[in-house]
Amino acid sequence: MEKLDVVNAALVALRAGKMCELVVVAGTAGSSPRGVGAWMAVFADGSQAGTIGGGKIELFALDEARELLAAGQSRLVRYTMGSENSDTGMICGGAICLCYLHLDATQAPLFQEIADVLTYRRIGDFVIDFEPFVIQALEGDVVEYHGEASRHTIAGCPELSLVEEGSKVTYTNAASEIPAAHIETLCPEGLTYIFGCGHVGAATARVLTAAGFAVVACDDRPGTLTPDWVPGVYDRRLVDYKNLSELCPIGPRDLVVVATAGHKSDIDVVIQAMRAKPAYLGCLGSRRKTAFVRARLEQEGFTQDQIGELHLPIGVAIEAEDPEEIAISIAAEMIHLRRTKLVPRKR
């Protein structure tokens, strides 16, 4: 998970008494390389963890972060990426608001809490107090549109906090005035359960893990749950497909992929998952199997609207055949859901 990697890298530096600059995409307008919530940490030795999109904007950000790191400063800046007045020379046609946060050892406890939220998939809002930047902006004579007039720099770091109860997420619009605070939900989705770790399930686990999903690999066959077969996953669980509630308490923030070794076990899992109402539920299936499963769900008392929310057959229709291709089609569908519903990108 990229954000957790960034946080852990920052923690290593902070605990060693070193400083780093955390670059947060706080807002976008129009097209931009990454959306709100992308993080990148920059260290005194010139190294980095994470990315805010690569290309020219990242080169600008790296140079600026190193400058601020040496000066012990934080900054809020808006870069334009289009038109004759483009700050970056890029032609995306949008704008991006970056917040550079100067971190030192005093922020280590907070970032340990953030790491825990990300690791254990809890709901938490990361809050940056923008008031110091607002005050600095009011001291200038030019409204912040682009260029030097858009840079608001302060010594040290603004107040940062973590609210674990969750609250309404607000984004900085890169084309507007500076708001009072930036609030970012750190972990909008919960766990991603993959039931069935045969060839397709294991390939899907690998792809989704690489894409930052917290994958829980589940099967009733111990041989399919080895680290060699499903590496890097959040957890591996030997389950009874007829009774998932104890080992796999599926919640409304979770995502579920059903790819067991047989139709009967697929149906057992789908019925239990449907009753749990996860954020996403998909199942492997041919046309004949799709009709069979839908008919069985009707017998179980599910409405047509509920059945319609099941992704069956699962995945984007790209004529996939081998396990890796099918895994990519499934991941594409789930990434689309994440980016359009679970954590929609602000435009």
UniProtKB/TrEMBL annotation:
Cross-referenced Pfam families: XdhC_C (PF13478), XdhC_CoxI (PF02625)
Listed transmembrane segments: none
Residue span(s) of domain XdhC Rossmann: 193-334
Domain XdhC- CoxI, first and last residues per copy: 14-79
InterPro entries recorded: MoCofactor_Util/Proc, NAD(P)-bd_dom_sf, XdhC_CoxI, XdhC_Rossmann_dom
Superkingdom of the organism of origin: Bacteria
Name under which the protein is recorded: Putative xanthine dehydrogenase accessory factor
